[in-house]
Amino acid sequence: MQFGGHYLIAARREDVWLALNDTAVLKEAIPGCRRIEWVTPATLVAEIAVDFGVVKPVFTGDLELSDVVPAQSYTLSGGGRGGLLGLARADARVTLADHDQGTELRFSADGQASGRIMKLGHALVGNRAQWVIDGFFERFAKAMGASWHTLEAD
Predict the structure, then answer these.
(1) 35 exposed, middle or buried (CB, 10 Å; 0-12, 13-18, 19+)?
(2) Within its chain, how far is the Cα of 102 from the centroid?
(3) What percent of the chain has pLDDT above 70?
(4) How far apart are CA 106 and CA 24, in angstroms?
(5) CB–CB of 152/24 below 8 Å?
(6) Are strands 58-69 and 148-150 parallel, antiparallel or unpaired?
(7) DSSP one-letter string for the chain
(8) Whole-model pTM?
(9) Which of 22, 53, 78, 96 shows a CA-CA span of 20 to 30 A to 14?
């Protein structure tokens, strides 16, 4: 499953970068986030309750940053364990660029799921995941005290 977004956040690029690495901001922005903390300089551990409508699994997982170019980009890789529902894994690329109205943030991800999660249906899981991603960036901007909106895809 592929996901993505192109957003404009009315804040300086350096401030967006700092917020993307601030667990308090992330916890506020991630729906259902019960816990998120740095365990190494490049690894986070998180516990997130996901609402798929018919089921609400709690995923526990690790997130690792790589290819980090400070205040510009990184790759975020992670996997979550949802108990009896199975596993989910995603790799995402985040890039930041200056924009005359703030910061242009591009997000692209490729996710996979196995087990009972996929029995919910590819469309249900995919649509819900894209909704969560868009909602994350809205809450992320609000947690920073900044306005935001989506930009049209290229």
Answers:
(1) exposed
(2) 20
(3) 80
(4) 22
(5) no
(6) unpaired
(7) -EEEEEEEESS-HHHHHHHHT-HHHHHHHSTTEEEEEEEETTEEEEEEE---SS---EEEEEEEEEEEETTTEEEEEEEEE-GGG-EEEEEEEEEEEEETTEEEEEEEEEEEE-THHHHT-HHHHHHHHHHHHHHHHHHHHHHHT--EEE----
(8) 0.82
(9) 78
Q: What is the pLDDT at residue 86? A: 56
CA angle 100, 104, 59 (to 5 degrees): 155
Quote the CA–CA distance of 98 and 104 in Å, as a whole number: 6
Q: pLDDT, tens digit, for every residue of 64-98?
A: 999 999 999 999 998 776 554 556 778 999 999 99
Q: Measured on CA atoms in the order 117, 120, 121, 127, is the torsion positive or negative?
A: negative
Two tokens, residue 80 = 């979550």
